[in-house]
Design a protein that fits this description.
The protein is of the alpha/beta class. Helices cover 39% and strands 20% of the residues. The chain has helices at residues 25-37, 52-64, 78-87, 104-111, 115-129, 148-161, 177-190, 210-219, 241-250, 266-277, 298-306, 334-343, 351-367, 373-387, 429-441, 485-500; strands at 6-9, 42-46, 69-75, 94-101, 136-141, 165-170, 198-203, 224-227, 328-329, 370-371, 392-400, 408-415, 418-425, 446-454, 463-471, 474-482. It binds 3-methyl-2-oxobutanoic acid (KIV) and zinc ion. 3-methyl-2-oxobutanoic acid (KIV) is lined by residues 14, 99, 139, 141, 169, 171, 202, 204, 509-510.
Length: 511
C-alpha cells in the first residue's frame, strides 16, 4: 500500500458552503495560491454549475495553479459534468469529482430514485467525466448511513466505469471512529477491484469526530483525506486539514504513511482563510489557535524551559508560529512592496491597482511602523474593495465620543455614485457609525455578529472587524481593517452590505 497520504483540500467548495463564508473569485485565487504553497495535492475549487460566478472562480483557479491538481464538483448529471469539464480546461492537472446519494433516506426522500437507477446514473456520470480527464473521483453521498452491500455494488461498478478515486463521505457526521474505520476496511476487502482505486474519506464534524473518523479511516487503508483549513464547512464543518496533517506527521510511530505538506505554511493559510471568510479561529483551536502553543501555568513553563518535550509534542515553528517577522516598513519602496506581495502569492491585475495598494501601504506605514504579512493581506482586501467600484463606498467618517455624552457619527457615503450624508447618535461610536450607514443605505438587514480582533500585536496594530448580516435567510460576512477600529467597523459593514445588495442565484450541490 502507498506510503503517501493525499491531501485534498475542499475549503473553496465545502468550506464555502458554510452560511456567510462565500468568497469572491479573487479571494478564492488567493487561498488557492496559499494551498499550493503548502503543497496541497488537490484543490477542490468549487461547483461550476452553481452559477456563472462559481464557474469563473473555478476557471480562474484552474488557470493559475500549476503545482496542485485542481478539482471541480459535479452532481451525477450531464450538465454538471460538462460545466465542470469546461471550467477545468486551463488546468495543468484536473479532476472531476462526481457524486450521488446512496443512503436509503437520501435515495427515497431526496432523489426519489431506486437503487438500480442510482447505480446507472453513477456509472453514466463517471464515464462522461472521463471524456474530460482521466482523473475521476466518485462519492456515494451519505455513505456513512448507506448499506455496505449497496456501497460495494455501486463502487465496483464505478471503478469499472473509470473512477480512480472512491471518496467515502460521512455527510452528516454520524459515524464513530471504530465504525468508520471498519467501513473502509470492509469496502477495501469486499470490492473485487478495490485495488484499482484510491480510497478517500470526507468527514463532517457534527459530533466533533471528523478528524478522528478520518484518521481511523487512514489506519484502515484510506490514502486520501478531504479536509478544509480551520475545519470550515457545512454546519459543524469538515475535518481540519491542519489537525489531520499534524496528527499523521507527529505520530509516525502509528501511521504507515505521511503527507507532502509544507507544514510551515499552515498558520499563514489559516489566517488567510479566517481573514477572508470572517470565521474567527477560537483561541484553544488545535495547531492554529492563539493558545495552541502558549503555556500559562508556572509548572508547565518551567518544564518547557528545561526540556521542550516535557509538555510539547510539536514545535510551534513547524506549523508557522514565531515567524511573524516585520517584512516591510515606512521606507520600503514600491519594488520591495511588489516583491513581498508576489512572495505571498498576490499579484495585482493592473499597475493602477498596485499603485492604489502602494499608496494605502504608505499611509499605513506612517501610522504603524512595522508591516507584517497579515497587514499586507488585509491591505489587499481593502484595495480590492476600493478598486472594485462597488455600489456603496465610504467617503468620510467623523465620530464624536466623550465621557458623559452620547456619541454621534457623521457619515458620508457614495451610493450608486451619489453622495449622501447623515449624522446619527448611538450607544457607542461603533453603534452610531453603523446606524448612520444603515440610515443611508436602508438595507433592512439584521446584524448577526460583530467582532474585533487585532491583526498583529500591540496597540498600534490594525483592528480587523468581522460582521455578519442576514436578510431573508441569506447570510453574508464582511471584513474591514484599519488602525482605527471605528473606521474598520464601517469598512466591514459596507463590505457586507455590498455583498448583500448583489442578488444571487446559486445552486447548492446537495439540496
Ligand atoms: O459531505 C458530502 O457528502 C459532500 C459530497 C459532495 C462529497 O460534500
Ligand atoms: Zn461535505
Amino acid at each position: 500500500m502507498s506510503d503517501k497520504l493525499i491531501i485534498f483540500d475542499t475549503t473553496l467548495r465545502d468550506g464555502e458552503q458554510s452560511p456567510g463564508a462565500s468568497m469572491t473569485k479573487d479571494e478564492k485565487v488567493r487561498i488557492a495560491k496559499s494551498l499550493e504553497r503548502m503543497r496541497v495535492d488537490i484543490i477542490e475549487a468549487g461547483f461550476p454549475i452553481a452559477s456563472v460566478g462559481d464557474f469563473e472562480a473555478v476557471q480562474a483557479v484552474a488557470n493559475v495553479i500549476t503545482e496542485s491538481r485542481v478539482c471541480a464538483l459535479a452532481r451525477a448529471l450531464d450538465n454538471d459534468i460538462d460545466r465542470a469539464g469546461e471550467a477545468l480546461k486551463g488546468a495543468n492537472a484536473s479532476r472531476i469529482h462526481t457524486f450521488i446519494a446512496t443512503s436509503p433516506i437520501h435515495m427515497e426522500m431526496k432523489l426519489r430514485m431506486s437503487p438500480d437507477q442510482v447505480v446507472e446514473n453513477a456509472v453514466k456520470a463517471v464515464k462522461r467525466a472521463r471524456r474530460y480527464t482521466d482523473d475521476v473521483e466518485f462519492s456515494p453521498e451519505d455513505a456513512g448511513r448507506s448499506e455496505t452491500d449497496f456501497l460495494c455494488r455501486i463502487l465496483e461498478a464505478v471503478i469499472d466505469a473509470g473512477a480512480t478515486t472512491l471518496n467515502i463521505p460521512d455527510t452528516v457526521g454520524y459515524n464513530l471512529p471504530h465504525q468508520f474505520g471498519q467501513l473502509i476496511y470492509n469496502l477495501r476487502e469486499r470490492i473485487p477491484n478495490s485495488d484499482k482505486a484510491i480510497f478517500s474519506v470526507h468527514c463532517h464534524n457534527d459530533l466533533g469526530l471528523a478528524v478522528a473518523n478520518s484518521l481511523s479511516a487512514v489506519l484502515n487503508g484510506a490514502r486520501q483525506v478531504e479536509c478544509t483549513i480551520n475545519g470550515l464547512g457545512e454546519r459543524a464543518g469538515n475535518a481540519a486539514l491542519e489537525e489531520i496533517v499534524m496528527a499523521v506527521h507527529t505520530r509516525q510511530d502509528i501511521f504507515s504513511c505521511d503527507t507532502n505538506i509544507d507544514t510551515t505554511q499552515i498558520l499563514a493559510a489559516s489566517r488567510l482563510v479566517s481573514g477572508i471568510t470572517g470565521f474567527v479561529v477560537q483561541p484553544n483551536k488545535a495547531i492554529v489557535g492563539a493558545n495552541a502553543f502558549a503555556h500559562e501555568s508556572g509548572i508547565h513553563q518551567d518544564g518547557v524551559l528545561k526540556n521542550r518535550e516535557t509538555y510539547e509534542i510539536m514545535r510551534a515553528e513547524d506549523v508557522g508560529w514565531n515567524t511573524n517577522r516585520m517584512v516591510l516598513g515606512k521606507h520600503s519602496g514600491r519594488n520591495a512592496f511588489r516583491t513581498r506581495l508576489e512572495e505571498i502569492g498576490i499579484k495585482f491585475e493592473s499597475e493602477t491597482d498596485l499603485n492604489v495598494a502602494f499608496r494605502r501601504f504608505k499611509e499605513l506605514a506612517d501610522k504603524k511602523h512595522e508591516i507584517f504579512d497579515e497587514d499586507l493581506q488585509a491591505l489587499v482586501s481593502d484595495t480590492v474593495a476600493l478598486v472594485a467600484n462597488e455600489r456603496v463606498r465610504l467617503i468620510s467618517l467623523k465620530v464624536c465620543s466623550e465621557t458623559g455624552e452620547t456619541p454621534v457619527a457623521s457619515v458620508t457615503l457614495s451610493i450608486d455614485d451619489e453622495e449622501k450624508q447623515v449624522e446619527t447618535a448611538g450607544s457607542g461610536p461603533v453603534d452610531a457609525t453603523l446606524r448612520a450607514i444603515e440610515e443611508l443605505v436602508q438595507s433592512k438587514t439584521e446584524l448577526q455578529l460583530y467582532s474585533v480582533n487585532n491583526i498583529t500585536r500591540g496597540t498600534d496594530s490594525q483592528g480587523e472587524v468581522n460582521v455578519r448580516l442576514e436578510k431573508g435567510g441569506r447570510i453574508v460576512s464582511g471584513q474591514g481593517a484599519d488602525t482605527d477600529i471605528v473606521i474598520a467597523s464601517a469598512k466591514a459593514y459596507i463590505n457586507a452590505l455590498n455583498k448583500i445588495l448583489v442578488p444571487v442565484d446559486r445552486a447548492h450541490p446537495q439540496v
